[in-house]
Design brief:
The complex is a heterotrimer. By secondary structure, chain A is an all-alpha fold. Chain A is built from eleven helices and no strands. Classes of the chains: A mainly alpha, B mainly alpha, C alpha+beta. Chains in contact: A-B, A-C, B-C.
Chain lengths: ~280, ~325, ~375
């Protein structure tokens, strides 16, 4: 038992090191004065000049702004559609096409992005042709197409999160509300949603991150002039390392780390308060 | 006995609309459809919204890809393919289906080697990911509850940072003058000359394992966490040593987790684009890069579509296995 | 002094089911529920009267919960009708029925305080002002004795308190019918007993009709004005607790409620006012002092409750009938009573319960392996034919 524990524990350590060393090295090298990034210029480093350059970089800033807008819209849309899908699949009785819907909602989880990207682009092209032929409209791919594509693949994740949360508790609470006179829509908004709110929130964050980070699908469905941050980063790094990218990476890592730590603290506090209250009830 | 006021003669005893009313709904004045919408379609509407979205934006695109994969490439056209369905002046529908693209895919050595290479890379990456991820998940599942949450957080945190940037980080590590070579070559002289690690299969393996590790660990962890410890104790009480009880009790029970994690890594890895682009070989490509090149460089949409369909067919079986497992997990959670 | 007329009136008021002209409050007519091939409820018909506490009693899978859910509106019957206060409930969804349910798991909304939980149902009703709602909530909290806990949340309450919130939440809507699904199942024994009486008091105070579903026969015996015993989707017997216990109509009911000694036999004397049964199970003759109706030559079963059998250490004067010899094989001391398992000559084990009235010394007490004689009165056996 001991040896077994030792082996897996040391693998855990190795694994964690494996996970974090690349990230830490990126952060480290963002302060390196040398353009070569990994060759430490001990004379002029550490420096923040790359950060300064980052904030002057128009292309990156406008791409970041577009990415934020797309990600926020995507997350909101994905949450709405994904929650509905999750609700339908876990609470509604059997209906025709249920298994098919289940398949449709989980397929994007594993579908390679080149396939999804290509197929959505071809859809948009076909729609373009249709609209031009029927209405004489011309529309360019851009914000709308990227957002629609992102919503489509991120809602799968939201559906899974919401579905597993709903599966975790039975529907007696919702039945009780129905029994007390509330119509189904009211039950959904006043009982179900508050109860799955943590799942909805983490679904939102998940969809945001996935959209913010997406490259392949975006490359397919974006149009001229709509460059998201991952597209800009990718075009820069395929030519080699770029210290400005290191600076950007460091900022993102910090933001994420901060967010994760804060939410962990918040959740811990909530757990502790809850435990205290339950103890009070048992004795009082 | 008079029934309750709700029935208006339009429903039978259980509230189902009679066929007459269904007819009237479709062709009748809006007032009636309003009544039905209020009382009957509530659930249907909720089901319809995500369903329609997915049908239009997920399913139909696949059908379009399928259609175009049979089209003829026309290099100067906008879009660059001949229409598959065409209405001729005589009022007839012309359907032109070419399987040339598919034939090409299975004959052209570039493609054939790409298929095999992609499968090989995905397969071994999954194996390595499993080899590293399983002990990690195991260690987390066995650690005390307070530590467990911290560890899970640590595993998830890289996932929330950009996938692209993390792959980029490996560029910095694996380059000829990257950190690893600096440590091995410049600082400690462990090797005589810098290792060429960039643009190799090795780099791709590392990239995939690195990026997909959380996807392997989480399903494994969620399975292992549910294991009843007393089962192991019972096995040991009956005389099985630690290794044997692991092999005969823990491992078989963790099988669903292994399958779920492996599929979550393998399936997307086959179609992985970013990692081979940044870290992979230039002489041997994976299918995703081929698809992208056919599409963006050659503008050969029919061929690109054929690649997509072929990839889909290749992965259909693993995808269905994955979905089966997903369903089982959800059903089990319901109990 | 009650005249005969007055006596009939009073009896009808307390026991409306005996009055053939009484109008049933809840009418369940030929209800059947199928899930695929499986028949959960099979052609059940019931009449329940206003102000009753009616208990549906049965083991798991007998269909009682399904029947309850059909009353609440969560399942619709495959065939048959349910009438509540004269109104057909077909197609009426749960949120439009004048019925409320107290769920087995209580189903309290965890994100709302006790007050808001109880007020929720009232908020769904039209025409109630905020102050009306507040008053009614306060009143019901008084009735269930939870006044000081109004601002707490469910996880801050003990199991018994949560149960009372669930009850209050359902009762505050003044439903015509209250359905209770295993209301006392989650409580410990002492709490259960106390709560049983509280439930009855509240019911009498408010006059609401209760339908309780339970598998616990003690619970049903305490709570119910009438019990409906269910087995495999059908109602096997309806009656007051006394009727069910003392006069079971078949083997299932006799065996399900309490313990019983069942002796199979054939009739050797069948008269309007007495019956004699020869039983090979017993190895003797059973004399019953009332007549029964059965086909001639049919096999019958004599059910004798353990508390109705006496143990004698010496043979009684008349050993020809209602008497059997045996050896004490097991004694279980339960404090208030002792249970004896006596093996008779035919090999059958007879269960006898004796109250521990006196503290006896060792030679006075009945001991293991002692040869004893069991007797019972002619009125004790209940004869059932199925």
């Amino acid at each position: 038992m001991k040896t077994q524990g030792l082996f897996s524990k040391s693998m855990l350590g190795v694994g964690l090191a494996f996970l974090y060393i690349p990230i830490l090295s990126m952060v480290f090298y963002s302060f390196n004065n040398s353009r070569l990034v990994t060759v430490w210029d001990s004379v002029n480093s550490p420096t923040v000049k790359w950060y300064v350059q980052l904030f002057k970089d128009r292309q990156i800033l406008s791409a970041a702004w577009l990415s934020i807008q797309v990600a926020a819209t995507t997350a909101t849309g994905a949450v709405i559609l994904g929650t509905l899908a999750g609700l339908v699949l876990s609470r509604f009785g059997p209906f025709r096409g249920r298994a098919f819907l289940q398949g449709l909602t989980t397929a994007p989880l594993v579908m390679p992005e080149v396939i999804t990207g290509l197929s959505m682009l071809l859809l948009f092209v076909s729609l373009e042709q249709l609209f031009t032929a029927w209405f004489g409209w011309q529309f360019d791919r851009g914000f709308a197409t990227i957002t629609i594509a992102h919503i489509t693949f991120t809602m799968a994740y939201v559906t899974v999160v919401v579905q597993s949360r709903l599966a975790g508790f039975d529907d007696s609470l919702e039945e009780a509300a129905l029994d007390l006179g509330a119509r189904p829509a009211k039950v959904f908004f006043r009982i179900t949603v508050p109860l799955i709110l943590p799942a909805i929130l983490s679904g939102w964050l998940l969809a945001f991150t996935l959209s913010w980070d997406d490259l392949v699908i975006t490359q397919f469905v974006s149009g001229p002039g709509s460059n998201t941050l991952p597209m800009v980063i990718f075009s820069r790094v395929r030519l080699g390392v770029s210290p400005v990218v290191n600076a950007l990476a460091t900022i993102m890592v910090l933001v994420v780390a901060l967010g994760v730590v804060l939410s962990a603290i918040f959740m811990r506090r909530q757990e502790q308060r809850r435990k205290r209250e339950e103890q009070m009830a048992a004795t009082g | 006995m008079k029934p309750a006021a709700r029935t208006l003669g339009s429903r039978d005893a259980y509230g189902r609309l009679s066929p007459l009313w269904i007819f009237l709904l479709r062709y009748g004045p809006p007032r009636w459809s309003e009544y039905v919408v209020q009382n009957w379609t509530g659930q249907r509407l909720v089901i319809a919204v995500p369903y329609l979205w997915l049908l239009v934006f997920f399913l139909i695109p696949f059908l379009i890809v399928l259609k175009i994969s049979f089209a003829e490439f026309s290099p100067l056209g906008r879009p660059p393919y001949e229409p598959v369905f065409q209405w001729l002046e005589e009022g007839a529908l012309q359907v032109k289906l070419l399987i040339g693209s598919y034939v090409y895919l299975f004959n052209e050595p570039l493609y054939v080697s790409a298929w095999f290479y992609s499968l090989k890379v995905a397969f071994f990456s999954t194996l390595f990911c499993l080899a590293l991820g399983y002990p990690m998940a195991y260690a987390i599942a066995r650690s005390p509850p307070t530590q467990r949450n911290v560890l899970l957080l640590l595993i998830i945190l890289p996932f929330w940072t950009s996938f692209l940037l993390r792959v980029y980080a490996w560029v910095g590590l694996l380059k000829t003058d990257g950190l690893i070579n600096q440590v091995l070559f410049k600082w400690f002289g462990i090797v005589d000359e810098p290792l060429a690690m960039m643009n190799t299969s090795f780099a791709v393996y590392i990239g995939i394992v690195y990026s997909y590790l959380p996807f392997m660990i989480l399903p494994l962890y969620s399975n292992l966490e549910k294991h009843d410890n007393t089962l192991l104790e019972a096995a040991q009480d009956l005389g099985a040593g630690p290794i044997k009880s692991f092999l005969r009790v823990t491992l078989p029970l963790s099988f669903p987790g292994i399958v779920a994690g492996s599929l979550l890594v393998f399936i997307p890895a086959v179609g992985e684009y970013v990692i081979p682009s940044l870290l992979g070989r230039t002489d041997q490509l994976m299918v995703a890069k081929l698809l992208s090149d056919e599409f963006f460089l050659n503008r050969d949409w029919p061929r690109a579509s054929a690649v997509a369909i072929a990839m889909l067919l290749l992965l259909v079986v693993p995808i269905m296995i994955f979905q089966r497992f997903q369903n089982k997990e959800l059903q089990a959670a319901r109990k | 002094m009650l005249t005969a007329e007055r006596r009939t009136e009073k009896k009808n008021k307390d026991e409306p089911w005996r009055d053939p002209h009484a109008e049933a409050y809840v009418r369940i007519e030929n209800i059947t529920k199928r899930f695929g091939d499986f028949v959960a409820v099979n052609n059940v018909s019931l009449k329940i009267f206003k102000g009753e506490i009616f208990c549906l009693l049965g083991g798991s899978g007998c269909g009682k919960s399904t029947l309850l859910r059909m009353l609440a509106g969560f399942e619709s019957p495959s065939s048959g009708s349910i009438f509540l206060d004269g109104q057909d409930m077909a197609g009426v969804p749960p949120y439009e029925r004048p019925v409320n349910m107290m769920f087995q798991s209580y189903a309290l909304f965890p994100h709302m305080t006790v007050e808001k939980n109880i007020a929720f149902g009232l908020e769904q009703e039209k025409g109630l002002s905020r102050s009306d709602i507040a008053t009614r909530v306060t009143d019901i909290l008084e009735i269930v004795k939870l006044g000081p806990f109004a601002a707490r949340r469910p996880h801050q309450l003990s199991g018994g308190q949560r149960q009372r919130v669930a009850l209050a939440r359902a009762l505050v809507k003044r439903p015509k019918l209250l359905l209770l699904d295993e209301p006392l199942g989650a409580l410990d024994k002492k709490l259960r007993e106390a709560t049983q009486f509280e439930l009855i008091n509240i019911q009498e105070q408010l006059g609401v009709t209760f339908i309780v579903v339970t598998h616990d026969q003690e619970e049903s015996m305490t709570l119910a004005s009438r019990i409906g015993v269910m087995n495999r989707g059908e109602i096997v017997q309806i009656g007051t607790p006394t009727e069910i216990y003392e006069f079971p109509q078949n083997k299932f009911v006799a065996d399900f409620i309490g313990s019983v000694n069942m002796f199979e036999g054939t009739m050797i004397e069948d008269l309007p006012d007495r019956v004699r049964i020869k039983s090979d199970d017993l190895g003797g003759v059973i004399y019953v002092d009332h007549g029964i109706s059965s086909a001639p030559g049919a096999i019958v079963y004599a059910a004798i409750r353990p508390e109705k059998i006496s143990i004698l250490r010496a043979p009684p004067a008349d050993t020809t009938e209602n008497c059997v010899k045996g050896v004490v094989k097991e004694i279980a001391y339960m404090g208030d009573v002792s249970i004896y398992l006596v093996k008779i000559d035919t090999g059958k084990m007879v269960r006898v319960t004796l109250p521990n009235i006196e503290r006896l010394s060792d030679d006075e007490r009945i001991l293991w392996d002692e040869t004893v004689w069991l007797t019972w009165h002619g009125s004790s056996p209940v004869v059932v034919t199925q």
